[in-house]
Amino acid sequence: MAKAMARLESFIERRDDLRLAFDRTWSRAELEALAEKESYGVALPPSYCHFIHTYGPMKLDRGGGMEAYPMVQPDMMFGVSPDADDACGAGDEELEEQIDVSLGNALFFQYQSTEWVQDFFCFAKDSARDDGELTVIRYWHDEVFENCPEPASASKHSYTFEDHFCELVDEIISEYSR
After folding, report:
1. For the chain, what is the radius of gyration of the CA atoms?
2. Residue 141 and residue 21: Cα distance in Å, rounded?
3. d(CA 118, CA 120)
């Protein structure tokens, strides 16, 4: 993640219209204590904890009060259990099963664009691997729910926060290079 962060910071330094903003960093003890929250019911993934401990929650400031990709504070995450009726393709039994199986109860941690558009990324709470990492899931308000694309090197259902952040950096650079 450090290389991805360096790429992002280098890109932002060359732009007058963008700025990275970080909230305070969190201690490891503070992050570990969040697993005790009844609504969380799971330890936060190590790669996410490392990021929050090192940098703090991040957002991209586009100027004029506009922000993109804001992360919520670690203690302000909330559970997500989308209703299949809200998804594009509602009524499709296969889609409803995918929502129930893939998402189940998830823990929302980052908006896709702004707080006003309900597109976000969340951790699948029931996807813990042996190393403690959780799968990152996308929730788009007007499209089919799906797992994030898998990097070529990853096995099924192992799209971690580190994978997410590295691809997010690529997405930001691509989108704001136009």
Report:
1. 16
2. 26
3. 6
Q: Which amino acid is at 42?
A: V
Residue 144 has pLDDT above 70, yes or no: no
Q: What is the rounded average pLDDT of the residues 100-110?
A: 66
pLDDT at 114: 56
C-alpha torsion 118→53→51→82, nearest 10: -30
> How many residues would you count in the chain?
178
Does pLDDT of 119 surpass 90? no
Domain regions of the chain by residue span:
2-176
Q: Which of 77, 96, 105 is nearest to 145 (CA)?
A: 96
Beta strand 146-147 with 19-22: parallel, antiparallel or unpaired? unpaired
Query: What ranges make up the beta strands (E) of 25-77?
Result: 58-63, 66-68
Question: Which residue's structure tokens are 């403690």?
Answer: 132
Picking from 168, 135, 158, the residue whose alpha carbon sits closest to that of residue 1 is: 168
Answer whether 120's CB lies under 8 Å from 113's CB: no
Secondary structure (3-state) at 133: coil
Pick the CATH number of 2-176 from 3.40.50.1580, 3.40.1580.10, 1.10.1040.50, 1.10.3300.10: 3.40.1580.10
